[in-house]
Amino acid sequence: MSDSGQAPIVIYQEADQAVEVRLDAEHETVWLTQAQMADLFDVKPQNITMHLKNVYADGELEEEATCKDFLQVRQEGRREVKRKRKHYSLDAVISVGYRVSSARATRFRIWATRVLREHLTQGWTLNRQRFEENARELEAAMALVRKTAGSPALDAASGRGLVDIVTRYAQTFLLLQRYDEGLLTEPHAQAGGRLPTLEEARTALASLKAELIAKREATELFARERGDGLEALLGNLDQTVFGEPAYPSVEAKAAHLLYFVVKNHPFADGNKRSAAYLFVDFLYRNDRLLDAHGEVVVNDVGLAALTLLIAESDPANKATMVRLVMNMLASPADA
């Protein structure tokens, strides 16, 4: 029914007795197993079972509303065993407590009420701050769109792509707002992501260059490296910080690859087209070019508009642009 990840554990302690309690701030309650209730009220587990049966039989509480299954992970020898355990809400705990020892139930109720109040108050404050920050970020993103829309480099097709980006970005914002009070940060992402080696990137760009020259859409200056800019860029994307990847996910690597090639100008000519091509190549190498329905994650027109949007953006808005790309790549279920 419910997963333990949705209910953080806090500790209730009285004298030398400590009981782990699952907190469910969303439903303003806490959850205990029958064994925990037995520890809490210092009685045998069979007594708790009997009292719970009577509570539900008398119609004092509804079992469906006050009893849920949570997954517990326990170490048994060398094995990690997962089992579902029935947990009972604060109402059920107090009902049993009154039948066993009202004094203990009262002390636990006072403690539980205080803990819930603290968590709910702190949670509201954090969500309020997040909402205000995200509202400012969305406003900044829309300002970038308005600026880009006035660019002479934006043709009709790119304009349609820009509208698609705005729509999807707004939808992502609304989904996240409903999920967590407007939490517009990085989406849940796929860990890992293999970047191309310098030679692989050069080979991919050489193929693109030959094709464009054949169409008379580029010159020999296209994708010609300026110093070691491309090598340094790929090295930075693959770096670690304190032993952990600086860009730990496919989405993060893809977004930063696109952004850095556009903004850092590692080539004498064709930085935006090269950035878009390396971006698509990276997604293809990591099986992320198509979504679950077999459609491209970002189509050609949308990619052109997104690349132009990054090019027109102020460097101060880098975090906003990176998050925009990451949310574009995340599926609605992951956002």
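The record above closes out task 2.4. Task 2.5 opens with a second protein, given below.
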Amino acid sequence: MIKIMVVDDQSLMRDGLATILSLRNELEVVGTACDGQDAFEKAKRLIPDIILMDIRMPGTNGVDGTKLIREEMPEIKVLMLTTFKDSELIFEALEEGASGYLLKDMPTDTIVQAILTVHSGGVVLPPDVTAQVIKEMKHSQSMAAPLEGNPPAAPKETEDLTEREHDVLRQLGYGLSNKEIAEVLFITEGTVKNHVSNIISKLGLRDRTQAAIFAVRYGITTYDI
């Protein structure tokens, strides 16, 4: 059973989601928290497998909360709950170690599937949502500079990637699992795993989430916007 913590400053959202998720046989909601600092303190005691974390909260927001948790308890995974208005914070959260994000109004089954994906080591970057997020970021005055206009030139380390590693990196940016990438590229899952390890090593990245962010940020993965 997967242990879950729900973090949101709005009690209706927090308690409602916790109640709905607790009805699922594969999940156990072990606690809730009202902001990132509260989540950090409770996580040390409750040790959830996955934390569903709102991004924009008074006090310690979801980005800073994710950073606190991932630095001290890297075994705990964080899945962000967002709105399109949070687009400028989404990539910050991913860069601090979040394993993906979902919109708050997505169906319960979608949220549960995302939890299962993250628990199995995957990354959740919904393609349609990511395309819209990038569009919002490009049109927002508060967008992060690296994503303004055309994608910035990729670091020279990408020149060390083989053609197949480029292909795998592109698919990582779509949030695909190793199995899904294997099906798309007609190679074995073990081969994909090796390519992912090589990509992370060559680019000096922390994990596959960082590789996915890299692919999107530098235009290796493209979205129709």
